[in-house]
């Protein structure tokens, strides 16, 4: 089977030839693997490690950043590169909606438009998609952008104290993504397999916000976005970090997710056996190779043992093997190799 | 207990900041922690009782509910906002020494890590538990912790990391602190951390939630 056939088989409830695999990593890790394996590109790493990774369609804009805010991203948020020793990551350094006091202020903000997307480049990227890879296009994670634009503390307090402002900001973010995704889906009709809907609703040991806030602010827009994707025959991949068990029934019933990532099984409530028992018939589990302890700080044998555990625990359900979030430079190459090798050796179905 | 102090505690727990604040909807138009603290002082209640029988009671309740997953990040932030509004009125009493805190804790997210909110939530719970917090912010190197300790050698230190790539920076920071200040208690926390890791790097305490860290401070260090 090709990587795409494996994903499509598992999505339609059929049995692939082996457990599919996926890859999430920082650029530093990908560059290191390329160097160590003598691979010219990421695709060659995928081939070497038998990774059934997705093909990401590029959705570039016609110009970088935001016309009104030099040095900022498309939302008007200034970014800062932070050096953590073995690599760098980008963090928000300004919050353009921080001082917004009224709904009118929100409407007056220079929001980006989907018209600024370079759809010719999207077409080109779609044409380049290899037939053997799942094609991923379309994203929706509005509260993450909300936090970047408004600052995290105010964003969370808005949900309680400023519902009108929260509705207004989320409304603009939804409109942008809905209009953009509609054009992307139309452009890629019949070519796009999967879209990403995400919102980090879990912290390490419980939800970040209450179920009533999730119900009020998060789920209705997710459902509309998922309905749009479904109307084009596109599958729904969902990401939430952390301990999110309490919201899974609603993600299934309202949003209608098909794949749930990343299954941080060390978090309370995310124990694999319980998830398989309660949701195994309705959702595909994606991830589940621990990226807080096992992959970064365990041995290759620890990784093998965990993958074998997963094969056993998920045997009555559907599982796509991947690290729980981006592999970081602290993870030894031997551990990464062990994860994929174990699937190839023992993950035949 | 004095009904005014009970009301202050309730306003903190419910996140009712001031009369203007529309949240929570069922207390709309009523006095919040801000006005009530001022009124309590005007009526002759001591700043100490407002802190310990009002603000700390409210924050203790929210801290326990947060630990038990009964309330979430937005609720804690609103509670802290209400506490801070009342605390403004107590500032002169802290400055004059009339009201003493239990001690001081120096907080920071470690070098290479810009994640602020977890450390802030813990700081809020500490302040609400009667501790003075000196927040060094994010991306804090060992030198900055040491400089703060130079000014407050009896303080404890709390440090946070969200990433596996930055939690390993904690080890050298703890070592540096312990080299100069062997008796200073160092607490660590953050999503990927564990008790084993805390022990391995020589930290004195770890807690998966802010209330547990406060319990540790109260049990081992309270003046």
Rg value of chain A: 20 Å
Instruction: For the largest sheet of chain A, list the strands in their spatial order.
Output: 1-4-5-6-7-8-9
Q: Percent range for helical residues of chain B?
A: 40-55%
Sheet with the most strands of chain A? 7 strands, parallel
CATH first level of the largest domain in chain B: which class? Alpha Beta
Biggest sheet statistics of chain B: 5 strands, parallel
Q: What's the CATH topology label of the largest domain in chain B?
A: Rossmann fold
Q: How many strand units of chain A?
A: 9
Query: Unreliable runs of chain B, pLDDT <50, ≥5 residues?
Result: none
What's the CATH architecture of chain A? Alpha-Beta Barrel
* Spans of at least 5 consecutive residues with low confidence of chain A: none
| Beta content of chain A | 5-15%
Terminal Cα span of chain B: 24 Å
What is the rounded distance between the termini of chain A?
12 Å
Element order, helices and strands of chain B? HHHHEHEHEHHEHEH
> Rg of chain B, please?
18 Å
* Pair with the biggest interface: A-B, 34 and 33 residues
Number of helical segments of chain A? 14
Shape of chain B: globular
Q: What is the H-and-E element order of chain A? A: HHHEEEHHEHHHEHEHEHEHHEH
Structural notes for this entry:
The complex is a heterodimer of chains A (349) and B (223). The radius of gyration of chain A is 20 Å and the shape is globular. Chain A is an alpha/beta fold and 349 residues long. In chain A, helix 9 links the parallel strand 5 (194-198) and strand 6 (235-239). Helices cover 45% and strands 12% of the residues of chain A. In chain A, helix 2 (27-37) packs across helix 3. Chain A has a single domain (3-62, 112-346), classed as TIM Barrel, CATH 3.20.20. Chain A has 14 helices and nine strands. Chain A starts with a helix and ends with a helix. Chain B folds into two domains: 3-96, Orthogonal Bundle (Methyltransferase, Methionine Synthase (B12-binding Domains), Chain A, domain 1); 104-220, 3-Layer(aba) Sandwich (Rossmann fold), CATH 3.40.50. Chain B has helices at 3-14, 33-42, 47-67, 73-96, 117-128, 142-151, 164-167, 169-180, 195-200, 210-220; strands at 104-109, 132-135, 156-160, 186-189, 205-206. Chain B has a five-stranded parallel beta sheet, with helices on both faces. In chain B, strand 1 (104-109), helix 5 and strand 2 form a beta-alpha-beta unit. In chain B, helix 1 (3-14) crosses helix 4, helix 3 (47-67) runs antiparallel to helix 4 (73-96) and helix 5 (117-128) packs across helix 10. The model of chain B has no long low-confidence stretch (mean pLDDT 96). Classes of the chains: A alpha/beta (349), B alpha/beta (223). Chain A binds chain B through residues 80, 82-87, 91, 152-153, 156-157, 159-161, 203-210, 213, 242, 291-293, 296-297, 328-331, and chain B through 15, 21-24, 69, 71-75, 77-78, 81, 111-114, 116-117, 120, 139, 163-166, 168-169, 191-192, 194, 208-209.
